[in-house]
């Protein structure tokens, strides 16, 4: 099971990398778009792949106990149709409708019993507002309505499905790669309304509120859009900034994401729970160097972050938390220019994270530990001046297994945890000439 789980985690990362590389390759086999000739107004259709994680919070109206949360992770595919309209030379308004199918999943295996909760299919309908950084590259925010189908499966002949609705908000960067095609990177945070009749839907007689389910989701996607009539654009009233990608830079960013902890307790009938989930925001500072090789850019960077991603169990007057508070990464990246001012890139390297298990007073800190691992991901970055870039980036991080047995006075490997993160950051960099 652990090997299969590791392979699944690597697959999550590989899907994101392959999608980015495929989109970048598309720019290599078509003619580049003229900076002054792209029309962002009109209908478009698109497809994309993504990865992400969700967090389920369980509570009750009849007991002062809640768990935030139960976490799952996975990948998904999406189809989109939308319409945009340029209300000024740089501002855009639009609407979109998309449908997705995926396998973001929480699983439990213990004593021959296996169970899973999986997101199967859903759709989003929303609006977006965008600003053109350059004639070819758009930054945007979006939000709207979301609907999702869930399914509980077990090997004991018991299972059911249900749906939840809520809202989503997010943002992205989209850039033209030829006269009709664009690629984009996009983050969405989705929050679903409280599901208070879950036990009744499972066929268990109970009053509403006996078990409340609140679900949130963090997802990142890479997508390609085909825009009808995009080649009929008029001359832009502004130009893309001249930017040389070679040089040292400093930067920072704000991000959000979710963590998933896989817990294994072999003495308890081989129990494996994937997983204990947490979510939150973080801040990040980085320094790095890039070198421009013509159509390609390669570089290295080091970053440090402070995070608020937390898993929390409330027990009436007290709580127990697993905090992922601070860490750092040492990463390399390779990118391809979509145009002279916008770069699509993949990255990977070493990551280290500090974890803290603590409780409310009077217990306080229980234990803390550091764990090494790796991160992979990618994003889009675009120049907004001759020295400054902005970008949206996704990373999947997995950390080494932590054995808590000695701290608890138990035999080796009696209880272990393996942690993974799905994070997205919106960042800015200042490059020195």
UniProtKB/TrEMBL annotation:
Residues 1-26 form the signal peptide. The keyword Signal applies. Residues 18-228, 236-432 form the Outer membrane protein beta-barrel domain. Keywords: Cell outer membrane, Membrane, Signal. It is found in: Cell outer membrane. Belongs to the Omp25/RopB family. This is Outer membrane beta-barrel protein. It comes from Mesorhizobium qingshengii.
């Amino acid at each position: 099971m652990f090997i299969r789980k590791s392979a699944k985690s690597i697959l999550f990362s590989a899907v994101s990398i392959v999608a980015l590389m495929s989109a970048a390759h598309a720019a290599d086999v078509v003619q580049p778009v003229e900076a002054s000739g792209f029309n962002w107004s009109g209908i478009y259709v698109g497809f994309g792949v993504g990865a992400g994680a969700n967090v389920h919070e369980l509570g009750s109206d009849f007991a002062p106990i809640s768990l935030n949360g139960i976490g799952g992770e996975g990948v998904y595919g999406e189809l989109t149709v939308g319409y945009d309209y340029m209300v000024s030379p740089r501002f855009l308004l639009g609407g979109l409708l998309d449908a997705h199918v995926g396998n973001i999943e929480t699983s439990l295996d213990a004593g021959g019993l296996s169970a899973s909760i999986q997101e199967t299919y859903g759709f989003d309908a929303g609006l977006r507002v965008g600003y053109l950084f350059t004639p070819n590259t758009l930054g945007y925010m979006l939000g709207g309505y979301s609907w999702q189908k869930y399914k509980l499966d077990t090997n004991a002949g018991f299972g059911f499905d249900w749906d939840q609705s809520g809202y989503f908000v997010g943002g992205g960067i989209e850039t033209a790669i030829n006269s009709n095609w664009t690629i984009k990177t996009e983050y969405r945070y989705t929050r679903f309304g409280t599901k208070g009749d879950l036990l009744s839907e499972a066929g268990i007689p109970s009053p509403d509120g006996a078990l409340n389910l609140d679900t949130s989701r963090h997802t990142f996607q890479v997508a390609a859009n085909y825009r009808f009539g995009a080649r009929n654009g008029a001359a832009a009233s502004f130009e893309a900034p001249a930017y040389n990608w070679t040089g040292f830079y400093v930067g920072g960013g704000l991000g959000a994401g979710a963590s998933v902890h896989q817990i294994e307790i072999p003495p308890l009938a081989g129990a494996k729970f994937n997983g204990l989930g947490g979510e939150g925001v973080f801040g990040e500072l980085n320094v790095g160097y890039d070198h421009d090789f013509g159509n390609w850019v390669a570089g290295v960077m080091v970053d440090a972050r402070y995070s608020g991603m937390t898993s929390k169990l409330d027990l009436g007057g007290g709580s127990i938390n697993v905090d992922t508070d601070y860490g750092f990464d040492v990463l390399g990246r390779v990118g391809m220019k979509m145009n002279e001012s916008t770069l699509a890139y993949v990255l990977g390297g070493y990551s280290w994270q500090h974890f803290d298990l603590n409780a409310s007073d009077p217990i306080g800190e229980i234990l803390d530990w550091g764990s090494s691992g790796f991160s992979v991901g990618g994003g889009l970055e675009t120049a907004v001046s001759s020295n400054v870039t902005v970008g949206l980036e996704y990373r999947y991080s997995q950390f080494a297994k932590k054995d808590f047995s000695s701290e608890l006075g138990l035999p080796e490997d009696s209880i272990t945890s393996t942690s993974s993160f799905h994070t997205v950051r919106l960042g800015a960099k200042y490059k020195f000439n």
